[in-house]
Amino acid sequence: MLSMRRKGESKGTMVQALRSTRVLLPEGVAPATVLVEEGRILAIAGWDELPEVAVHDYGDDLLLPGLIDPHVHINEPGRTEWEGFATATQAAAAGGVTTLIDMPLNCAPETVDVASLVAKRAAAQGKAWVDWASWGGAVRGNADELLPLARAGVPGFKCFMIHSGIDGFAWVDEAYLRLALERLRGTGLPLLVHAEVAGPVDAATKALNASGADWRKYATYLASRPDAAEVDAIALLIRLVEEFKTPIHVVHLASAAALPLLADARERGLPISVETCTHYLWFAAEQIPDGATEYKCAPPIRDAQNCEALWKALETGLIDMVTTDHSPCLPHMKHCVIRGVETRWDAAWGGISTMGLALPVLWTAMHRRGIDVRQIGKWMGSAPAKLAGLTGRKGAIAVGADADFAVFDPDAEWTVEADDLRFRHKLSPYVGANLRGRVKETWLCGVRIYADGGCTADARGRELVRP
User: Fold this and answer.
1) How far apart are CA 161 and CA 230, in angstroms?
2) Overall pTM > 0.90
3) Which of 113, 124, 223, 404 could cross-link 98 (Cys pair, CB 3.0–4.6 Å)?
4) Does 100 fall in a domain?
5) Does the CA dihedral 77-81-86-87 come out positive or negative?
6) Residue 467 lies in a domain
């Protein structure tokens, strides 16, 4: 476990208490009073133990740990018009998320060396409403930058096994993966991998083009990113993790066809972890209209049977966590008309905007399936905390942890409208979704940063730096 400090952290002295009949503690949901001092959880008492301090009584609302999203694209510096720290972190706060880990691409410069990390830190100053960290980038030609980035405090590294869509963030082959895993051996830092290989994608795309397939149809795009691209990539990663024993994390798993490989790797005790995303658990290919490119992502959203298999893997623990892969862009990159024809799926930018919606989306689907609310604490708290080296500091309501909380009404029913979206561009396939559960307040290190439908006036978030 890696301890973390909060860069620029300041301390207060007032003791406060948050009280609810339903507090999600590591051992389960129970009535409790949580005492907070100097931004940390001082003690956890019984619900009826009211200390002589300021008490915030939330009745029957669910008090959750502040959530962690380790897969977001903030896009600053360089592409702030796509998103930016201010809008991304306010959207996070509105959804009960108190920690974001930013991906190293889509910003300019990409976070592939210490100088670019310094630029990102400068860009974030005074703009973050929640705590954040940045993954380092692993791209062809930067193997010598990995350890300097590690010493500069990144919690791990991200790479692509296929073209990322960003020319400055070059995909890597097996030779580079071997070099990177050797450099990271013994550091304990994970290598996060976009697990698709190009061979099956190129072959499928060539065949579709030869047959005159209509790229305005979602079925064409889905066929262009076959399950084999993920399965082949994950098979290679399993062989490498077995050889190097360096932790590997598979980001945004979409294909259930890879689950047997991952199950076997887990049974053999290999250090490989897995995430899936809210959109793979909520949507299914059968419901995506042709031309609705706000649903485009890579790997693609697959069919309903695949979705159910991902849910089963999540419930059994084979999939460790749920993230958003919040990846916004300028609206015209998603929707534009060329000569009167809607943008083809192969021309639209890939990425789904989700920030602020993940908790109610996930809880709505969980409630329908009868899944215990305690799983939220694992899937969006303790598991991502472990991945990012934040265990003991973030992701759980426990003594000594940061006093990060989400006050959640699990019974509220509402329909997502564009005005509910707090990220920069109000374009998302979740608009119109009927959801259950809504965040009422969010606290960061003992300070309420979101309440009554809005964020506080000051941006208190800090960078989390691995010592």
Assistant:
1) 10
2) yes
3) 404
4) yes
5) negative
6) no
Assess whether pLDDT exceeds 80 at residue 337.
no
Domain count, the chain: 1
Burial class for 372, CB neighbours closer than 10 Å (0-12, 13-18, 19+): exposed
Banded model confidence at residue 50, pLDDT cuts 50, 70, 90: confident
The residue-averaged pLDDT of 204-226 equals: 97
pLDDT band at 13 (very low <50, low <70, confident <90, very high): low
d(CA 68, CA 381): 6
What's the chain look like in SS3? Answer: CCCCEECCCCCCCCCEEEEEEEEEECCEEEEEEEEEECCEEEEEECCCCCCCCEEEECCCCEEEECEEEEEECCCCCCCCCCCCHHHHHHHHHHCCEEEEEECCCCCCCCCCCHHHHHHHHHHHCCCCCCEEEECEECCCCCHHHHHHHHHCCCCCEEEECCCCCCCCCCCCCHHHHHHHHHHHCCCCCCEEEECCCHHHHHHHHHHHHHCCCCCCCHHHHHHHCCHHHHHHHHHHHHHHHHHHCCCEEECCCCCHHHHHHHHHHHHCCCCEEEEEEHHHHHCCHHHCCCCCHHHCCCCCCCCHHHHHHHHHHHHHCCCCEEECCECCCCHHHHCCEECCEECCCCCCCCCECCCCCHHHHHHHHHHHHCCCCHHHHHHHHHHHHHHCCCCCCCCCCCCCCECCEEEEEEEEEEECCHHHCCCCCCCCCCCCCEEEEEEEEEEECCEEEEECCEECCCCCCCEEECC
* Residue 339 CA: distances (Å) to CA of 31, 134, 296, 336, 343: 61, 41, 22, 10, 10
- Phi, psi (deg, nearest 5) at residue 390: -110, 10
175 within domain boundaries: yes
What is the pLDDT at residue 341? Answer: 54
Q: Kindly give, in sequence order, each residue whose CB lies less than 8 Å from that of residue 283, ignoring residues fewer than 6 positions away.
A: 295, 301, 307, 429
C-alpha distances out from residue 18 to 15, 310, 406, Å: 10, 35, 11
Provide the pLDDT for residue 342. 64
> Domain span at residue 202?
69-391+412-436
Tally Cβ neighbours within 10 Å of residue 11. 10
Residue 341 lies in a domain: yes
The CATH code of the domain that includes 316 is 3.20.20.140
Q: What value does the mean pLDDT take over residues 289-317?
A: 96
